[in-house]
Design goal:
The protein has ten helices and 17 strands. The chain is of the alpha/beta class. Belongs to the zinc-containing alcohol dehydrogenase family.
């Protein structure tokens, strides 16, 4: 007697609201979009909260791939899973990540890098498995951003670009760990008793300060042209604040005077390649390390005199602070739940989804650190 197998219902197309960018610098438009079911090794997520990152602003102002849905710092609940997914089930709480981790490629297995060869930074606005989008409006494709596209009530991501978290962790807080707050001290391996200078005291810069404090740095100097940021930064570990507009001497000379010859570590957190050179000059000879974490809007080329490197200085770049997203993020979430790291303090605004353009304006005007956008219930 032949037995019939149970019929497994496949997920349907979902129609939901999403904030669609139709062109560079144009206000986002809340649209009804179709979200296709997850394909092999993908999951579809009901987005609960998403925070706005400076990188979203930079891409929105300058990138050529439109229409698209921005957003990459998000938390949500798994709605459905694609073929081959065993790590997640419906109802799981997840944190999205803009670079994934396959765990098998040369980069993932090296122990030296977090730039996965399979699920590294996605630039084409399509999904990995078939080079197509999961969003559409009246049959017209709407492109993804940074493998996440969280400015949508539902989104589809590769299972390697999500991390399962406990259901008791507050989703409206830990969404910040998807990018900015995590991208801090790991890449530099800051040593106890060292001196650190940070150019730019936004979310990334403050997270560097927090990490430097945790690592035992004795001098943590913050540099920013906004005087209001100096006082706020003290809560994150800044021991001295410099506003370049208040100094007659070049800022690198001021830092050398404060540190007795240059900082052990300097971090460029602005997205200004000219400032990378200044950060290098602010480091000490012999072992000074400069880490660039900002994403430049213009002039992506870095220039520096070769003599800087002959004297022993090093320039290093980083995505996501060098953390392996799936391997390392659970430990950061655990540190947050134990109150070992600050996260809530970066949130300066909470807005409903329909006010997403207000969030963009606040960040462009320098009036917020992180704005958390709460999706519709």
């Amino acid at each position: 007697m032949q037995m019939s197998l149970p019929c497994v219902k496949q997920p349907d197309v979902i129609t939901c609201k999403a904030a669609v960018a139709w062109g560079a610098g144009k206000p986002l438009v809340i649209e009804e979009v179709n979200v296709n079911p997850p394909q092999a090794m993908e999951i579809r997520i009901k987005v609960v909260c998403t925070s706005l990152c400076r990188s979203d602003i930079t891409a929105w102002e300058s990138q050529a791939i439109f229409p698209r849905i921005f957003g990459h710092e998000a938390t949500g609940i798994v709605e459905s899973v694609g073929q081959g997914v065993t790590e997640f089930t419906e109802g799981d709480h997840v944190l999205t990540v803009f670079i994934g981790e396959c765990g098998k490629c040369r980069q993932c297995t090296s122990g030296k890098s977090n730039i996965c060869e399979v699920l590294g930074l996605e630039r084409r606005g399509v999904m990995h498995c078939d080079q197509r989008t999961r969003f559409s409006i009246n049959g017209k494709p709407i492109y993804h951003y940074c493998a996440v596209s969280s400015f949508s009530e539902y989104t589809v991501v590769h299972s390697g670009c999500a991390v399962k978290i406990s259901s008791v962790v507050p989703l409206e807080k830990v969404c910040l760990l998807s990018c900015g707050v995590a991208a801090a001290w790991n890449v530099a391996d800051i040593s106890n008793g060292s001196s650190v200078v940070i150019f730019g005291l936004g979310t990334v810069g403050l997270s560097v300060a927090q990490g430097a404090k945790l690592r035992g740095a004795s001098q943590i100097i913050g540099v920013d042209t906004n005087p209001e940021k100096g006082e706020n930064a003290k809560a994150f570990g800044i021991t001295a604040f410099i506003n370049p507009h208040d100094s007659k001497d070049p800022i690198q000379q001021v830092i050398k005077n404060l540190t007795g010859g240059g900082a052990d570590y300097s971090f460029e957190c602005i997205g200004d390649t000219g400032m990378v050179t200044t950060a290098l000059q602010a480091c000490c000879d012999g072992w000074g390390l400069t880490v660039t974490l900002g994403v430049p809007k213009v002039k992506p080329e870095v220039t520096a005199h070769y003599g800087i490197f002959l004297t022993g200085r090093t320039l290093k770049g980083s995505l996501f602070g060098g953390w392996k997203p799936k391997s390392d993020l659970p430990s950061l979430v655990d540190m947050y739940t134990k109150k070992e790291i600050q996260v809530d303090e970066y949130i300066t605004h909470n807005l409903p989804f329909e006010d997403v353009n207000k969030a963009f304006n606040l960040m462009r005007e320098g009036k917020c650190l992180r704005c958390v956008i709460h999706m519709a219930k």
